[in-house]
Specification:
Blueprint: H1 4-7, H2 18-22, H3 30-42, E1 47-52, H4 56-63, E2 71-73, E3 75-79, H5 86-89, E4 90-95, H6 106-110, E5 115-120, H7 123-133, E6 138-146, H8 152-158, H9 167-170, E7 176-183, E8 193-197, H10 204-222, H11 229-240
Antiparallel strand pairs: 1-5, 1-6, 2-5, 3-4, 6-7, 7-8
Helix pairs in contact: 3-10, 4-7, 10-11
Length: about 250
């Protein structure tokens, strides 16, 4: 949306580089960051655990975690981006797999059939996980948001069981699953999908979608007037900001 993403040089400083700070560049525009902001705000107040599909070890490196310390799981959620409609794209749980080099070391070879389940404590950490998987034609991250933080080990156990897990058995009242499956190369699939599932009906998705849609409309009207990366960062921070809650300033 902002012309500077095509015209200006990106800084090597992660805090000044739009790709490393927001996973936004001249191909993956600002709207995808808005999807992550909606997912983050919708899961506010819950304990979040994220599977970055395929690029498990790259995600650990960006998080500063030793690969051997990552919680490994045998199952991951999949939305098939080659499908033209979400109802057929929403596959559900599939056996996990991780990227390994052509000449893997013994640890990589032994753990190629596992995904990583990462606890996420900040929006920047979520962005780092999105960055870890964003280099391919498609990417996917899945957020499990639990009302009870003590159920983290139960989540890991459910995703490590021998038989195919069912989402209805994993999500308890108050829990949420958010899956962000993105087409980066337009030749790789017909559409990107933002999937949100909860055990109970809620109007909050609609309220947040309305907030971020209006924020994006405001951003779009001013994007051509942004001149510098500093101005761009200020504008994006406003774009991604959550709605004000009653009684807050």
């Amino acid at each position: 949306m902002w012309p500077g993403l095509w015209e200006q040089e990106y800084s090597d400083d992660a805090d000044l580089n739009p790709w490393r700070r927001y996973v936004v560049n001249n191909n993956d525009g600002e709207a995808l960051a808005v999807w992550r902001a909606l997912a983050w705000e919708f899961t506010a107040g819950l304990s979040r655990f994220v599977i970055p599909t395929y690029y498990r070890d790259e995600a650990a490196q960006l998080q500063g975690i030793d690969r051997a310390a990552v919680q490994l799981v045998r199952w991951e959620y999949e939305v098939d981006l080659e499908q033209p409609e979400w109802l057929t794209a929403d596959i559900g749980f599939v056996p996990a797999r991780a990227c390994v080099p052509l000449l893997p070391d013994p640890w990589q070879r032994e753990h190629a059939g596992f995904a990583g389940l990462f606890p996420v404590a900040s929006f920047r950490h979520l962005t780092d996980l999105a960055l870890a998987v964003a280099g391919d034609a498609t990417s996917e991250i899945t957020i499990f948001a639990l009302q009870d933080p003590d159920r983290a080990s139960m989540l890991a156990s459910a995703l490590n069981q021998a038989h195919h897990p069912e989402l209805a058995e994993i999500l308890h009242p108050g829990d949420i699953l958010v899956d962000v499956a993105v087409v980066h190369d337009l030749g790789a699939g017909p559409a990107s999908y933002l999937t949100i599932k909860t055990p109970e009906a809620t109007d909050e998705v609609g309220h947040l979608a309305a907030h971020f849609s209006e924020a994006f409309r405001r951003y779009a009207t001013q994007a051509s007037q942004i001149r510098t990366f500093d101005e761009f960062h200020d504008a994006i921070d406003h774009l991604l900001a959550p709605p004000r809650r009653i009684g807050t300033t």
